[in-house]
Amino acid sequence: MTTTAPATDAQEALRATGLKVTAGRIAVLDALEHAPHVDAEAVLSLVRDRLPGTSVQSIHNVLGDLVEAGLVRRFTPARQSARYERRVGDNHHHAVCSSCGRVDDVDCVVGEAPCLHADAPEGFVVAVAEVTFVGICRDCLAAAREATP
């Protein structure tokens, strides 16, 4: 009798979008599940033990496939490299610390997606509102207060 290991959430998600299940895609999805808001270099560091010999270009290719399939969200904070996360489909926003670069999720600001209602051009339908709040995180603020005599 042959038994098959149960499919993981990542495998099921890939199959549901029509993407082939590969070790690279599974590793990237798992990495982003445990470390949201990281860039491609950080993803590479997270998967390198699991997939030795993986290149940063390979990671970029996998991330591109996952973003296109809607399994991963890509966002680019000002003056930083693109970041990736598994939280998709809810049109949440981000708070970025201008001191240390920390990124936190901010739930939808007002109501349902797209959360904000802009004066868009006539005939233009807003589907997504991407908002980035920039400021100082509590850790950097506390450190600055401690450093001030």
Computed over alpha carbons, the radius of gyration is: 19 Å
Strand/helix succession: HHHHEEEEEH
User: How confident overall, as mean pLDDT?
Assistant: 87
N- to C-terminal distance: 72 Å
* Oligomeric nature of the chains: single chain
Q: How many alpha or pi helices?
A: 5
Q: In percent, how much strand structure appears in the residues?
A: 5-15%
Fraction in helix: 25-40%
Alpha-beta content class: alpha+beta
Number of strands: 5
Main beta sheet strand tally, sense and closure:
3 strands, mixed
| Uncertain stretches | 1-5
The strand order across the widest sheet is 4-3-5
Principal-axis shape: flat
Walk me through what this model shows.
By secondary structure, the protein is α+β, with helices and mostly antiparallel strands. Helices cover 35% and strands 13% of the residues. It is built from 5 helices and 5 strands. The strands form 2 sheets. A 3-stranded mixed sheet has the order 4-3-5, with no helix packed on it. Strand 1 (73-75) and strand 2 (83-85) form a beta hairpin. Helix 2 packs across helix 4 (56-68). The radius of gyration is 19 Å and the shape is flat.
